[in-house]
Design a protein that fits this description.
Distance between the termini: 63 Å
Number of strands: 2
Strand content: under 5%
Shape: elongated
């Protein structure tokens, strides 16, 4: 089926709606639209007929369950399948609203998603990882750049995408910076003196001009820095240090949250610092801290 196919054209319009009206990230839009196309293709096979956009308004729970079963049979895990079902429901809701109809979504139970806990790195591992990544860089200024970024993740709880979206307008640095997170939401996060010093050292050493409203962190040719290069630097440092595969750039953000909680930070404040839309997203860190305390108890208590 080509893009001119009405159902696929509907999926393309949904992608535009997600990007421009809902302000979803490029990665989210790409993944959701791909799910919509998979769903359309499956319905064509399942029903043995070409699927038009109005067919989206007349689906049953059996259709959704069949799609879910097909995706699980292809090896999709529970968490990924749940995300796919969420995307399908969003697509069907958009299809109905585009026709001025009240969405009547077929009922089906999403796969139970295993509740996974973030695996924080210890403070020593977090700092060691950042320093080793800097030492292993191709050029000294690149090492200073990588050190500054990784310290931002651990010291301020930023996502990689948030760190790389910072512009030179944040300079000169004060005790806090304003960050733009998911869905364009902004928040203020603290900047520790060590993080501030690392960023200032990078700015001084960078051979490329860092102009206002241009990316603060640049690549070796002066353009915007690709997040994959940060992940690659962490992966190499992790291997050299013999750290677990779970020690990733995002794990540094988890470490920031877990260590703050262990030091007495309340969940509401932590929610604001992390930029979570709901408190339930932050509450998972209480389980991380409880798991750590239980581990300490088991190793320290004489009767454990």
């Amino acid at each position: 089926m080509g893009e001119a196919h009405p159902a696929r054209a509907l999926a393309a319009r949904w992608g535009g709606h997600l990007a421009h009206d809902r302000r979803r990230s490029v990665h989210t839009v790409r993944a959701y639209v791909a799910t919509a196309h998979r769903f359309i293709e499956f319905l064509g096979r399942h029903r043995g007929e070409e699927i038009g956009r109005f067919a989206m308004l007349k689906l049953s729970s059996a259709d959704l369950r069949a799609f879910l079963a097909d995706r699980r049979a292809s090896g999709l895990g529970a968490a990924s399948a749940a995300r796919e079902m969420s995307a399908v429901r969003g697509f069907l809701k958009f299809a109905a609203e585009e026709q001025g109809m009240q969405p009547q979504l077929p009922r089906t139970r999403a796969p139970r998603r295993p509740r996974t806990l973030p695996r924080p790195a210890s403070p020593a591992d977090a700092m060691g990882l950042a320093q080793d990544a800097a030492d292993g860089a191709s050029e000294p200024w690149v090492g200073q750049r990588d050190l500054a970024i990784l310290l931002l993740l651990y010291g301020s709880g930023l996502r990689v995408s948030e760190a790389l979206s910072l512009t030179a307008s944040a300079l000169p640095l004060g005790p806090a910076i304003r960050v733009t997170g998911k869905r364009g939401k902004t928040r203020v996060v603290p900047v520790l003196p060590a993080v501030r010093e690392a960023i200032e050292a990078y700015v001084t050493a960078c051979p490329w001009p860092i102009a206002a409203h241009q990316p603060l962190f640049v690549g070796v040719r002066g353009g915007p820095l690709n997040a994959d290069l940060v992940r690659r630097a962490v992966r190499a440092a992790r291997t050299r240090l013999g750290l677990a595969d779970s020690v990733t750039p995002h794990a540094l953000r988890h470490s920031f949250a877990t260590h703050l909680l262990a030091r007495g930070a309340d969940l509401r404040s932590l929610q604001e610092l992390l930029g979570h839309a709901s408190l339930s997203s932050t509450q998972i860190y209480t389980a991380v801290d409880a798991a750590h305390l239980l581990d300490v108890y088991r190793h320290a208590h004489p009767r454990a």
